[in-house]
Each structure stands twice: as C-alpha cells, then as structure tokens.
Design a protein that fits this description.
The complex is a heterodimer of chains A (143) and B (73). Chain A is an alpha+beta fold and 143 residues long. Chain A is built from 2 helices and 5 strands. A 5-stranded antiparallel sheet of chain A has the order 1-3-4-5-2. In chain A, a hairpin with a 5-residue loop joins strand 4 and strand 5. Chain B is mainly α and 73 residues long. Chain B is 41% helix and 0% strand. The longest helix of chain B has 11 residues. Classes of the chains: A alpha+beta (143), B mainly alpha (73). At the A-B interface, helix 2 and strand 2 of A face helix 1 and helix 4 of B.
Chain lengths: 143, 73
C-alpha cells in the first residue's frame, strides 16, 4: 500500500505540473472580430453581427489557449464545466486570463485509479473588471 | 409551442452527420487542438472507438445550448 500511495502522489504531482505548464502565466488578448466570426461560422450561426454587439459568452473560452505540451500520457477527457458570465465583452476589449489548478484528486474507477483535475480561469477586462469565471474538470486515467 | 395538441405528429428530428471537417473547424474556432479530437490513431491508442465529438459541437445540437453558445451575455 505505501508503494501505491507513493505512486498515486507521484502521478498527482505530475498531472499538476503538466496542467500548470499548459496554463502558463496570465495572458492578455485582444478580442478580434475575425476570431469571433470564425467561432460563429464553426457553429453554423449567422455572422450578421456588428462590432457593437457583445461577443458570444462562451467565446471567452477560446482565449489564452496553450497548445503544448499536450497531455500525452494516458487518457484525458473533459468531465464538466461551470461558467459565470458577469459583464459583456466586445470586439476591441483586452481580456486578461489567469488559470490555475485548484485540485488534483484520485478517484477509483472500474478500470483502476482515475485522476480528477479541477481548474479555475478568471477573465478580467482592461478596466480591471471581472467579466467571467470558468471552472473545468478533467478526468485522466490509464497511467 | 402554440398549435401543438395531443396527437400532433412532430416532424422527424434529424441530427448529423458530424464530419471530421466540423471537428477540425471547431478546433480552430475554439483554439484548442487537443489531438484526441481529430486524430483517429490517438483516440484508438487511448482505447476509444474513434475521435470523440467535442462537447460544444454535441451540445449545440439542442436549441437551448445553441443559444447559450452563440448569443451574447
């Protein structure tokens, strides 16, 4: 059992490091009209909006993404999201995104241990106002 | 739902197909290129029968979620 506990703690530490590396430091991004248009097109939604219209709320999730490193070990899938949208965001706004891992925990699955990684992202505009918060859960197994 | 009565026959609900192009377009739109969503070999190596559809694409097939995703605050 001590070996299993040690292994579990090692995996949890490794997962935290992987996701913290993916999140990186807080970043600020400009809300661009072209990216909003591409977002709507990918959903087959009409793009007849003007830049005075607020952007789709979930568009914020496309900001400050990190492509590498990919979580290459085992299997990782989304296990749920929560959102709070507090203020509208427009094209031309500058949104700062800060992400952090809030929890890594072992869960028992049918096929062995699974690991739940929870994180929180905050979205703040150029005036320092908190415009949104998202909380993501990821389940990882097969390590 | 005005005009709907007991026995009213609703038109068939057609879903899909969801094509790989749609999955890749969504990767680009969401700025999330997690390889599981477009690379069949990665999905099979993870023990899945194929590349899973991103939750956002799956969800948008219901009207309520379409509105949540596409409309503003």
């Amino acid at each position: 059992m001590p070996d299993e506990q040690s292994r579990s703690a090692e995996i949890q530490r490794e997962l935290r490091e992987i996701y913290e590396a993916r999140f990186g430091p807080p970043r600020t991004e400009l809300i661009e009209a072209g990216r909003v248009r591409d977002y709507l097109l990918a959903m087959d939604e009409p793009c007849d909006r003007t830049d005075d219209d607020p952007v789709p709320a979930l568009f914020l999730l496309t900001l400050a993404r990190t492509r590498r490193p990919q979580p290459s070990l085992g299997t990782s899938v989304n296990a749920g999201d929560e959102y709070e949208f507090r203020l509208p965001v427009h094209v031309g706004d500058r949104i700062s995104v800060a992400r952090q891992v809030t929890e890594v925990a072992e869960k028992q699955g049918k096929r062995g241990p699974m690991y739940l990684i929870r994180s929180e992202s905050t979205y703040t505009n150029q005036s320092g106002e908190l415009v949104a918060v998202s909380r993501q859960s990821i389940m990882s197994w097969g390590r | 739902m005005s005009g709907v009565r007991t026995g009213h026959r609703l038109p068939p609900l057609t879903k899909g197909p969801v094509t790989r192009q749609m999955l890749v377009e969504w990767c680009a739109a969401e700025n999330d290129y997690y390889h599981l969503h477009f690379d069949e070999r990665v999905a099979e190596a993870m023990g899945m029968p194929g590349t899973p559809i991103q939750a956002m694409i799956e969800n948008r097939r219901t009207e309520v979620n379409r509105r949540a995703q596409a409309l503003a605050f």
